[in-house]
Amino acid sequence: MHIKQASPALKLVAALLLSAALSSCGKSQTGGMPAAGPVSVGIITLQAQGTVLSRELPARISAFTVAEIRPQVGGIIQKRLFTEGSEVKAGQVLYQINPDTYQAAYQTAQASQAKAEATLTSAELKARRYAQLAEIKAISSQDNDDAHAALLQARADLATAKASVETARINLAYTRITAPVSGRIGKSSVTAGALVTANQTTALATVQQLATAYVDMTQSSTELLHLRRDFAKGALQSQPGKAKVKLILEDGSEYAKEGELQFSDITVDASTGMVTLRAAFDNPNGELLPGMFVRARLEQGVRQHALLLPQQAVSRNQKGEAVVMVVGQDNKVSARTIKTSQTVGNKWLVDSGLQGGEHIVVEGLMKVQDGTVVKAEPLAANASAAK
């Protein structure tokens, strides 16, 4: 086989390329890229302090007073004397039932009373005369006794007649159906001409007092037991006075006025396992309407030495556990699993895993992992991080 030798020009080019390659390797080995420095992260320092804990619960509005209007006598409705949805005063006439039969009964009772009064007058005169005659033996003792008995019966008949007059007067008054309380009246279930009966099941209308509104909240019996245990062991402390309640309305806005917890029910609903709590709110403008769904934020107590952590500082591992990055004294980051129970504003309440004074990475989490050396820079909001 015949092999051609490379020309002198090709040999020169190859020598130059080899020299450039060796020079490049030399620079790479001796110089290279500068070593990576500490990663800058923003941190906060945990500060333990007393914190008021609250719980957001589902709730519904109910009226302070509810009065269902029902007739106490039967008859035909002649008039409806109110405007549906308006404010009514206690004692205001709402309906007029035809009073004719009750007026006649009242007049009959009055006549019976007059008759009884006349009978009593006659019996008194007769008894007085018979008593005088009995003293002189002009009549028998039996006749005198009969006259005295007739007097007693006449007095009893008059008392009965007076009671009948009062009953007839009351029934006549019941034909004017009045509002038992002041408040806002709803729609009427009957119109003029309708026949109603005494104490019927269906209410004619309903009057509700809305100047004060009740808020009925529901809380699970399990949460209630945990609360009581926390109070018993001192983990939570009660505040003086009644617990405060705030409302979140259906549109997400917060109701301007603050309410107070009135009571907690003494029984648990067997079907739901929930306990009902009731708070009272001033409602001068009628903004809170019965049946409205709201969220109630109920103050449950004060936790001393509570640790609050910004939510952005907490991530989750594959097990779903809460994890934070803690900066140690050697400026190295270590991942730590913690336990949180609830939110307070935009922060997590830490139950375990952290202590006051520790430095937690809040900004730059994506740049660090367990063991990363960092340059910790306190955030401007550090002073309020535990609020």
Automatic annotation (TrEMBL):
Cell compartments where the protein resides: Cell envelope
Protein name per its UniProtKB record: Efflux RND transporter periplasmic adaptor subunit
Record's keyword terms, sorted: Signal
Domain Multidrug resistance protein MdtA-like barrel-sandwich hybrid: start-end pairs: 66-208
Signal peptide boundaries: 1-20
GO MF annotation: an example: transmembrane transporter activity
Domain Multidrug resistance protein MdtA-like C-terminal permuted SH3: 306-365
GO biological process: response to antibiotic
Protein source organism: Aquitalea aquatica
Main localization category: other
